[in-house]
Design a protein that fits this description.
alpha/beta, 6-stranded parallel sheet, 11 helices, 53% helix
């Protein structure tokens, strides 16, 4: 693989430890709520919250819900699973209370900053950026809170661009922002189709960060192979792959 001029990253669960913060946040919030939210075991509770995030956040990305609407839907469905009914105002307040616990758990993955340092060492002049599906203001807040803003030249968010991964338009928009051709950029993300396959089909070098040793579907595995996607299991492997 030719060393790229630009390395672009997904944010959540690639550099930013989103899933861990979500799990910590919902467990701590459920503790403050008490009964009836203590009926589920911790792993069941976090799995439910994760599933609701996947369902309703993708509804937001597809335009079926606005940003606040997907938050309300997540809170409402989670509470309903515990026999509690929330109206829109109550759901917004519920999510806002949860959100404070989530924010308190924000952190980077341990391999994030060392990987950026090593890439800069191996590839002089390398530049970094982020492409994220989400609201620009919200994602910017996370980037600033963990200090990534000092390392990233551009933050490209689907909510601002109007195109979401895996559509090629958002990857090409990012390349234009850096003034490079797609072939001169690599993209690293934790979702095989949304991140790595999407980037590769747009002409970038697609890298799948498979932290959890997920087994891809046959279709995803076939398409990843055809697109030339490379797989790593830790960001620590990335400098050796690219540099």
């Amino acid at each position: 693989m030719t060393a790229p001029r630009v390395v672009l990253f997904d944010l959540d669960d690639t550099l930013f430890a989103h899933r861990a913060a979500v799990e910590t946040g919902i467990l701590r919030y459920a503790e403050t709520l008490g009964a009836p939210y203590g009926a589920l075991e911790a792993d069941e509770l976090t799995r439910l919250w994760h599933d609701l995030e996947e369902e309703h956040y993708h509804s937001y990305l597809a335009g079926r819900l606005d940003f606040e609407g997907q938050r309300q839907a997540r809170a409402r469905d989670f509470a309903a699973r515990h026999g509690v009914q929330l109206d829109d105002a109550q759901a917004s307040a519920w999510f806002a209370d949860y959100f404070e616990h989530y924010v308190a758990a924000w952190t980077l993955h341990d391999d994030a900053l060392p990987t950026l340092d090593e890439l800069e060492h191996r590839i002089p002049g390398i530049r970094f950026g982020l492409i994220t599906n989400g609201d620009l203001a919200f994602q910017s807040r996370k980037v600033q809170a963990v200090g990534l803003d000092a390392r990233m030249d551009h933050l490209i968010a689907s909510g601002e661009v109007g195109v979401a991964k895996p559509e090629p338009g958002i990857f090409l928009f990012a390349c234009d922002a850096f003034g490079v051709a797609p072939a001169e950029a690599a993209y690293v993300g934790d979702r095989l189709r949304t991140d790595a396959i999407g980037a590769a089909l747009a002409g970038l070098s697609g890298v799948w960060l498979n932290r959890r040793d997920a087994v891809p579907s046959p279709d995803d595995e076939r398409d990843a192979e055809r697109a030339g996607v490379r797989t790593i299991h830790s960001l620590a492997e990335l400098p050796g792959l690219l540099g």
